[in-house]
Specification:
This is Addiction module protein. The chain is an all-alpha fold and 80 residues long.
Length: 80
């Protein structure tokens, strides 16, 4: 009988995949072809675009975003 990995073990393995492979995995395990998912994303994109045009969106400087991403990646590397 094959042993089952825990969710934490699976997450650790998934995080080692390339971004392209992670995206593929998400598509494979989700019902990404469901029309309501596409419609929901379209609505979310429209809502966010409208917030930007209305001036109500909280915009973040790219350098700040980049720094946060780098900090999270470093934290994940240290946790492994």
């Amino acid at each position: 009988m094959m042993s089952m990995a825990t969710v934490d073990e699976l997450i650790a393995q998934v995080l080692q995949l390339s971004p392209e492979d992670r995206a593929r995995l998400v598509r494979e395990v989700s019902d990404a072809d469901a029309p309501d998912i596409e419609a929901s994303w379209g609505e979310e994109i429209s809502r966010r675009a409208q917030e930007v045009m209305d001036g109500t969106a909280e915009l973040v400087d790219w350098e700040d975003v980049k720094k946060r991403i780098e900090e999270r990646r470093e934290q994940r590397r240290r946790q492994r």
